Amino acid sequence: MTTNNPTSPYSVKGTQQNLSPDKPQESDSEAPKSDMSSKANIKDNTSVFTHILPENKELETLSTYHFHWNITEWKSLETRSHSSIFHAGGFSWRVLLFPKGNTQTENISVYLEIVDSLGSLKKDWHVCAQFSLILSNPNDPTNYHHNNACHRFIAEEIDWGFTRYYDIKNMAKSVDKKGPFLVGQQTVLSVALRIIKDTTGVLWHNFSNYDSRKETGYVGIKNQGATCYMNSLLQSLYCTNAFRKSVYQIPTEKEEPTKSVALALQRCFYNLQNSDVPIGTTELTKSFGWDSLEAFMQHDVQEFNRVLQNNMEIKMKNTPADGAIAQLFVGRMKSYIKCINVEYESSRVEDYYDIQLNVKGCKTLEDSFKDYITVETLEGENKYMAEGHGLQDAHKGVTFESFPPVLHLQLKRFEYDFMRDTMVKINDRYEFPEEINLDEFCSDSEQQEPYDYQLHGVLVHSGDLHGGHYFALIRPEKEDKWLRFDDDRVTPVTKKEAFEENFGENSSKDHLGADLPIEDVRITNVKLFKRFTNAYMLVYIRKSKLDEILAPVLEENIPFHLKRRINEEQAADEKRKKDKEDLVLCTKVAVMNDSTFSKRQEFDLATLDDKNNALSPGVEEFKLLKTETISALKQQIIAHYHLEPDKFRLWTLCRNNKILRVDQVIGPADEKKPIEKLREATCLAKHIGGYVKIYLETVDSYHPKLPAIGSDTALLFLKYYDTTTQEITGLGHLFAKLDKKIEDLLSALRQRAGLSIDSAITLYKEIKPTMIEEINTAHTLSKAGVQHGDIVCFQLSLSKAEAKEMKLKNKNPTVPDHFNSVYNRVLVHFKPKTANQSPEIKLVMSRLSTYTAITHQLASAIDADPSRIRLTTASQITGYPKDTLIYSPNLPLQNMIPFLLDPSEYLNVAHLETLPIPSVYYEVLEVSVVDMETKKSVKIILLGPTLRDESTLHLVVSRACTMRELSEAMYLKSKTDKKDIHKLRFYEVSSGAIVKEFSLDQSISELTEKGTTLYAEKIPEEELSMDMENDMLIQVVHYHKNPACLHSIPFRFVLKKGESFIHTKKRLQKRIGISDKEWQKVKVSLIRNLATTILEERAIDTDTFNLQEENLGEGDALGLDHVDKSSKYGRFGSVFDRGIFIRG
Fold first, then answer.
1. Is 469 a catalytic residue?
2. Residue 485 pairs with which residues in a beta bridge?
3. What's the pLDDT tens digit per position in 261-285?
4. Which of 129, 505, 755, 791 could pair with 766 as two cysteines, CB 3.0-4.6 Å apart?
5. Exactly one of 145, 299, 456, 469 is catalytic; which is it?
6. Alpha-carbon distance 328 to 350, whole Å?
7. Are 38 and 59 in contact (CB under 8 A)?
């Protein structure tokens, strides 16, 4: 029984995609008030459907019906009463009434119900209806109360209405000119019903148990926190089938998904193509090198798209997919300046991957393209300096030389508002067409076919400057069928939802007609809510390329290794799920025999890991129902090992004092017991489950028959340690009397190991990993403390000199030494400190290994010079590199890894990968680590003429070298012209200001170790030729609003005597290399006492300002006030909104 109050007639339960701009949602506390102003007559069909249940023009009506229930005996009604059945839209309906209320007693409850007495409605059946439930005076059809609702009736929800429909105590009263509705015992309950066509198939859907794959053929992507921007773009790229095919062509067979963006993206696309449920992207973001914080940071879609495509383009080099990105997304444009009065033109042709179009001031997409190619005239004081012609009037503009097959258009919804001095979102109405011809914007007159484009996708941002939500509307195929990809849900949408609803709305105005800031607009209804939802990126596909770009991705397009690997992982997942389910019903049995420990190097006979449900190699696993008997287990063992019933017997294994030992024979009397009882007897921690632990004894060449055993007989296990190979070999078992002297067993041991009969051997007993005791062979087994089930290890005896020599060679001379080495083993994950420099690798080594031993083992694995490997610790919090280790040859591994697990933690795990794997970073230097102690690593950012062309150099030089020698080293490693190396300026920057400059003769020992950045630039020609007596050098800094908070790269600049400030500004603009349009946004100021806390800022707002008259000092600077476009602050204005990156 559905008892909640419904939403308003034109709202959508569970979604906002069809919210009406005209009706607010009803509260949950009370039903909506009736509208009596129209004075409709409930007996008049036309009047009812005009005034009480008016038609929504956005919805198509299939049929209408008007029904009246004349109630004559109100007091005689049952607690739950039904009207007679009426038929509408091919279905049977009736009114369900609770005259004394449902789940409450203050109000009558009324519902509209589908009649399904036989339960014949199918699970996927539904009908959409708008209806009004009307209570009226039996004598006056214009005196009524009504509540309206809309609902998707489904098999699980066949009734819908109002629990608090009308106050019971007011039924016989007149209240606020309404009523009475109960006259005597009579009243009328009417229904106005409109059956609505469900155009998309999801109208008013509550999306409970919604299946995106079944309904649309596509699945969604889970949101990791704030990754909706990424999800929307990934769906767009996925539906660009030609791009998906090209990604599949990248060779990735030998790569790991969390370390390879290409493989992770292939897997993402494969899962989108084949999964029946929403997919995750954790694997993909890990391949980007992102931590969990990145998943909760919303980035810019355009920036993410560019970074991802750049990464893919690199991965596609020299593969079958080489050039695919350019063929799909790259067009060409020409920027030019053409003189009006002389024959001179300067132009530059460059590639573009997307086009950023203005929204502000443009009403349509066509307007934006016209705005983009608008020609600017350079005249008057803004004339162009043409080489060989002097200052000239000129036209400056951009023209497109070609458009790509897939055109990504970034709509500039976020811009800097100079009036408010802040970033704002532009929500203005902006229309884009389904099809567009771009021929008029292209200079290529020889094109063979028109640049006709069809809209393929609309990426939408809903929200304001400070955050919001992204989703994508995509037409995946040529057919006119649009889908909404909204994180984990994919739904069909109407064309109106794809176009009209994402154009944006006309701006709200204040009383003076100015746009209200976003934060001042109160969202009081759906219409205002829609104002913040608009298109942010458009994807158009050239019509002549539609068939090629949207051609289906077939099975043969998917790499075989990708399908195989994912299928294997899915099978493993299914097995794990099944194993988990089996744990409830089944008991698992671990069976070991003599071959299990034949090559085992660790302590004990085997590792049976109850906690992680894992077994060491050679241990077989059997599974039986908990109710099955031990006899059933014996039958499985006979079948598996192909044994005869009288040629084997089973022993229980028990774990005491953390060691595994043989306990008792399982006799005929035990075989009728349930297998679960045996598990309880052999498991130390019974509550966590675990294995039944069994030793399988079989006849062999040493024991042709199963020997009789008594209380004076011991079953012993033998291991031989070969000091030459440094390996242990398991040699099976033997039976011996406890009163027998051990020396009597030596010949049998020599024979088992293949040693000569007179070889001197030393015996040891395994007690625990750190306690391997030598056995006195002159004693009996009993006196030597050797008991039933013990493990005896032996080796050739060594002299003290031989043992010492082996130690010097880093070898283990004795059994205790061997086990001590194994006890200290740890699996370490070595990662390159610089991404893509070298491979990641996992190595097993001793926690006691020294720096030298570690680098030799690592060098052997990665084929490098061990003397050049430098190690760095990893942060326990972030996992990123932390402290570079000072070279110390004898520094042990355990001192390099904080919080390394105790050796005892490794004892009872079958696989080292089960435990957390510690990380150590490494780098392969250009010189040896020892040399590095006498040298210095210097990081320099080399600047170009406009401060924008920058490259980072890492140099290793002598600590005694000068800046001149540093510049010569730069020449060898960069594109620096040799003739310029003595014209370089070196300076350090801290917090956006120059703090130190260096002459070429200064030593690099004077460089600041931390907190500054070292820059190098070629000294500009105007500075080299400056008038030293009259001109002066000044520092130029960048800031935004607050001159105490600097950003970007500061630089030195020549102030020329007698130069007008307008020309000074032109030189400044040229120096920082920005366009006229961007320069207009920059304010210039004079800052005095820059390095102090009492700095003074003075805006320079006139072109006649004379800087030479200001008596400037060394602590003064020119300030450029503009928005920081570096990655420190993004459009959300947070230091946490850092620039996006992809490492893998």
1. yes
2. 472, 490
3. 889 999 999 999 999 999 998 888 8
4. 791
5. 469
6. 16
7. no
Q: For residue 625, what are its two tokens?
A: 């129902």
Q: Indicate left, alpha or beta for 1096 from its phi (over 0: left) and psi (-120 to 50: alpha).
A: beta
Q: Is the CB of residue 187 less than 8 Å from the CB of residue 74?
A: yes
Decide if pLDDT at 34 tops 50.
no
Distance CA 993, CA 1049 (A): 8
Sequence-distant (6+) residues with CB within 8 A of 986 are 940, 963, 966, 967, 997, 998, 1014, 1015, 1016
Label residue 1130 by pLDDT band (50, 70, 90): very low
Amino acid at 788: H
The three-state secondary structure class of 156 is coil
Q: Which long-range contacts (CB under 8 A, 24 or more apart) does 818-825 make?
A: 818/601, 818/721, 818/726, 818/728, 819/603, 819/766, 819/769, 819/772, 820/769, 820/770, 821/846, 822/601, 822/602, 822/603, 822/769, 823/603, 823/769, 823/770, 823/903, 823/907, 824/848, 824/903, 825/906, 825/912
- For strands 1013-1018 and 935-943, give the pairing: parallel
Helix (H, G, I), strand (E, B) or coil at 138: coil
- φ, ψ at 917 (rounded to 5°): -100, 115
pLDDT tens for 177-193 read 899 999 999 999 999 99
Closest CA to 772 of 811, 712, 702, 820: 820
Give the number of residues written for the chain. 1144
Structure tokens, 779: 């004693």
Q: What's the CA gap between 989 and 986, in Å, rounded?
A: 10
Helix, coil or strand: residue 1139: coil
What's the whole-model pTM score? 0.67
Burial annotation 239-272 (CB, 10 A radius, 16+ → b, else e): bbbbbbbbbbbbebeebebbbbbbbbbbbbbbbb
pLDDT tops 80 at residue 656: no
Which of the residues 66, 128, 205, 228 is marked catalytic?
A: 228
